[in-house]
UniProtKB/TrEMBL annotation:
This is Fructose transport system ATP-binding protein. Keywords: ATP-binding, Nucleotide-binding. It comes from the Bacteria. CDD domains: ABC_Carb_Monos_I. One of its GO terms (molecular function) is ATP hydrolysis activity. Residues 19-263 form the ABC transporter domain. It holds the Pfam family ABC_tran.
């Protein structure tokens, strides 16, 4: 791993996972989406989730974010068991997700996209009765947040998202996650189809979110990105969890071998913390 945060942001023996799932099972008729998957995410770490197509990565993330309800298993936020029925439930608990399809509104400006679904109303009669938006407040808060994350690629907060590059659009989506994800940020293939420079910008933002104390789950097929950014790597295969490894103790070749079944991950090789 080429970039590390301060020691204080790393999991310690006394830390409770910010997000923990145990024994998750999801069935689609006779097709097994998840078979008894356990996963733990700690504050201030990037946990990569890797696996081949059909490994259960998307199903796992959907169960963690309220898009699906697992048939069995438990999910806990900071040690407290939760039961998400909708994605709104997960967002209210502090989990924000950037899906691969990018849920941005191209015709709206950057500020409006950051506050999409969380628009600030004007005070008093104008906001409560007429439902008028406080665009000035949203612009100011959006600008402050962009600046606090050290994002320099978004110069004009009033610029329409449809005029931005693919990397800039991804930065907007990730920045929204950082703005409202108080505990967990989940990023599904955030660097897919991006160039080298834009990929670097997005990965820097991921590390910045981690360094601010959020737990970050990064789903990616890009092994160099995973090993550059992640603190631990959760491996999925055929709907089950193979185990967890560290970029410090294993190579990208090891990770590919484990997720394809070419090698078996021994218990003494796993990185639990």
């Amino acid at each position: 791993m080429t970039d590390t945060a301060s020691v204080e942001t790393r999991p310690t023996d006394s830390q409770t996972p910010v997000l923990e799932a145990t024994g998750l099972v999801k069935l689609f008729g006779r097709v097994v989406g998840l078979r008894g998957v356990d996963i733990r995410l700690f504050p201030g770490e990037v946990l990569a989730v890797i696996g081949d197509n059909g490994a259960g990565k998307s199903t796992l993330i959907k169960c963690l974010t309220g898009a699906m309800t697992p048939d069995q298993g438990t999910i806990k936020i900071e040690g407290r068991e939760v039961n998400f029925k909708t994605t709104q439930d997960a967002r209210a608990a502090g989990i924000e997700t950037v899906y691969q399809t990018l849920a941005v509104a191209p015709a709206l400006d950057i500020a409006s996209n950051l506050y999409l679904g969380r628009e600030i109303r004007r005070p008093g009669f104008a906001g409560k009765v007429l439902r008028m938006l406080d665009k000035k407040a949203m612009r100011q808060h959006a600008q402050d947040h962009i600046r606090s994350l050290g994002i320099t690629t978004l110069q004009n907060i009033d610029q329409a998202v449809e005029t931005l590059s693919g990397g800039q659009r991804q930065v907007v989506a990730v920045a929204r996650t950082g703005a409202f994800g108080s505990k967990v940020a989940i990023l599904d293939e955030p660097t897919a189809a991006l160039g080298v420079r834009e990929t670097g910008q997005v990965l820097k933002l991921v590390r910045d979110l981690r360094d601010k104390g959020l737990g970050v789950i990064l789903i990616s097929h890009n092994m160099p990105n995973v090993f550059e950014t992640a603190d631990r790597i959760h491996i999925q295969r055929l709907g089950g969890a193979v185990g967890v490894i560290s970029p410090k103790t294993h190579s990208p070749e090891d990770a590919v071998a484990f997720m394809t079944g070419a090698r078996q991950l021994r218990e003494d090789e796993q990185t639990l913390r």
